[in-house]
Amino acid sequence: MVTDMMRTRLGVGFCRTELGATFCISYPPRIMADSNTVKPVATFRAPHGLAASVFKNDGKSSEYFKVSLQRSYKKGTEFETKRISLGRDDLLAVAELATRSWNYIADAEVASRKQNAKEDEGSDEE
């Protein structure tokens, strides 16, 4: 709900704080004349409402790129989207953190299944 969120307009981006977490999207300051929207130069989609959009920005001395990662989900009858904006140097770090998190969860699930199997064996012997 919009009234429950703090919104802050920042130079060339938009951030929203919700339940203590801040999600931002960064976009180039130029607007497409025909549609009044900023268009990414590339968008990549994955299952579960995940997407990454690449935006080209014109800096003082050269161009640079920002990536907006987003996840869309249904909340009640409406769709919500969470976004975070990252620079090029952040992307590999995020990939590494995601890989480590996935491995941790997979290991924890295996350990839990083994523990449950041992408990089931012990109750069969009684």
H/E topology pattern: EEEEEEEH
Strand content: 35-45%
Q: Give the structural class.
A: alpha+beta
Distance, first to last CA: 54 Å
Report the helical percentage: 25-40%
Please state the CA-atom Rg, rounded to the nearest Å. Answer: 21 Å
Quantity of strands, as a count: 7
* Overall 3D shape: elongated
Tally the structural domains.
Answer: 1
| Mean pLDDT level | 76
Walk across the major sheet and give the strand order. 4-5-6-7
Describe the structure.
- There is one protein chain.
- By secondary structure, the chain is of the alpha+beta class.
- It has one domain.
- The chain has one helix and seven strands, in the order βββββββα.
- It has one helix at residues 88-125, and strands at residues 6-10, 13-18, 21-26, 42-46, 50-58, 63-75, 78-87.
- The strands form two sheets. Strands 4-5-6-7 form a four-stranded antiparallel beta sheet.
- A hairpin with a 3-residue loop joins β4 and β5.
- The chain is elongated, with a radius of gyration of 21 Å.
Task: Break the fold down into its secondary structure elements and pairings.
Elements: E1 6-10, E2 13-18, E3 21-26, E4 42-46, E5 50-58, E6 63-75, E7 78-87, H1 88-125
